[in-house]
């Protein structure tokens, strides 16, 4: 596949990996409504996340509805060509949102922030730049 005019083999691998059987389609988790009401609702959480190549290194900001799966893709070079090229695979920050619109809005906001602001956001909760992926699995 082409990305910005360049061939990106990882995109083809990811496409084949996640579109050919057998692939797993996650079943939404249904939360029961109040007692006496048989209707339920689907709980869907979205995440805005920041990956880094190293402490104070290159940053990548993304959005997903499956944080563990998406970071796994980045770590195994199945994610974006940018993260593969610059070896960006350390999850240093993430936050959740209730809707995809809120998550995308926040992602765009963070992408426009000055680098110094992003570093302060990361270090507010992750002073050592620990890989938070290990806490998730």
Please give a structural write-up.
- The protein is α+β, with helices and mostly antiparallel strands.
- It has a domain at 44-136: GIY-YIG endonuclease (3-Layer(aba) Sandwich), CATH 3.40.1440.10.
- It has helices at 9-19, 67-75, 81-85, 100-112, 115-125, 133-136; strands at residues 2-3, 6-7, 30-32, 40-42, 46-52, 59-64, 90-97.
- It has a three-stranded antiparallel β-sheet with strand order 6-5-7, with helices on both faces. The protein has a two-stranded antiparallel ribbon with strand order 1-2.
- Strand 1 and strand 2 (6-7) form a beta hairpin.
- The protein is globular, with a radius of gyration of 17 Å.
- It starts with a strand and ends with a helix.
- Residues 1-5 and 11-38 have low confidence and may be disordered.
Strand order across the biggest sheet?
6-5-7
Question: What value does the average pLDDT take?
Answer: 81
CATH class of the domain at 44-136 reads Alpha Beta
What overall form do the CA principal axes indicate? globular
CATH superfamily of the domain at 44-136: GIY-YIG endonuclease
Class inferred from helices and paired strands: alpha+beta
The biggest beta sheet is recorded as: 3 strands, antiparallel
Can you give me a brief rundown of this structure?
The chain has 137 residues and is α+β, with helices and mostly antiparallel strands.
From the structure above, extract its key features.
3-stranded antiparallel β-sheet; 137 residues; alpha+beta; globular; GIY-YIG endonuclease; 6 helices; 7 strands
